[in-house]
Amino acid sequence: MLGKELLAYVDHTLLRPTATWDDIKEVCDAGVTYKTASVCIPPDFVASAHEAYPKLNICTVIGFPLGYETTEVKVAETKQAIEEGASEIDMVINLGDVKQGDFEAVTNEIGALKEACGDKILKVIIETCYLTDSEKVALCKCITNGGADYIKTSTGFGSGGASLEDIRLFKKHIGPNIQIKAAGGIRSITDMKAYIAEGCSRIGASAAVELLKDHLDEEV
């Protein structure tokens, strides 16, 4: 798989809390140049990025990175992000609801955000590093029943990131229309290829363009 083909799977990501507009522009420029699947940036930069790069597919995060905002706040954040130009939303679930076994609340929140998204893509971050396998399986059902488009492994801010074992577990338990995004700790070309081979449709990575630059230059 060539570098440009790999980048078509990548949400080129910059969610560092100290990111400046100059940093965001650099990511957006790379997204345009290398035709990444999207750029994933903080919500407060969505409007500026959309104005400066109107054809760029912009993803942003909601309830990030801890997920314990109320559903009403997450819905409001989602609506604002879409109004300002986001095409994709990566939401963080409420892990407290998961730990107390209230999967109905999780499903309902996912459904509310999908309704707010309309025809825009909703990815659901479950933060696998804090979950048991049985909780992961239950969340596959929540995401399927809530009508989301993707299950996503991690924020990249937790105690661990993506694993191939979790991708294999998801594939057994998600609905037929749910896709998979791996994120967190993916820092090599070998990693990217492995996750795609296991069935991931998206890769969340901040280092992908830098890793693939030499290969891209060779392909030109």
Automatic annotation (TrEMBL):
Localization annotation: Cytoplasm
Pathway: Carbohydrate degradation; 2-deoxy-D-ribose 1-phosphate degradation; D-glyceraldehyde 3-phosphate and acetaldehyde from 2-deoxy-alpha-D-ribose 1-phosphate: step 2/2
Taxonomic superkingdom: Bacteria
Reactions it catalyzes: 2-deoxy-D-ribose 5-phosphate = D-glyceraldehyde 3-phosphate + acetaldehyde
Pfam families recorded: DeoC
InterPro entries, per database record: Aldolase_TIM (IPR013785), DeoC (IPR011343), DeoC/FbaB/LacD_aldolase (IPR002915), DeoC_typeI (IPR028581)
Main location: cytoplasm
Entry keyword set: Cytoplasm, Lyase, Schiff base
EC number: 4.1.2.4
Residue positions of the active site: 90 (proton donor/acceptor), 152 (schiff-base intermediate with acetaldehyde), 181 (proton donor/acceptor)
Stated role: Catalyzes a reversible aldol reaction between acetaldehyde and D-glyceraldehyde 3-phosphate to generate 2-deoxy-D-ribose 5-phosphate.
Family the UniProt entry places it in: Belongs to the DeoC/FbaB aldolase family. DeoC type 1 subfamily.
NCBIfam families per the UniProt record, alphabetical: deoC
Annotated protein name in UniProt: Deoxyribose-phosphate aldolase
Gene name tied to this protein: deoC
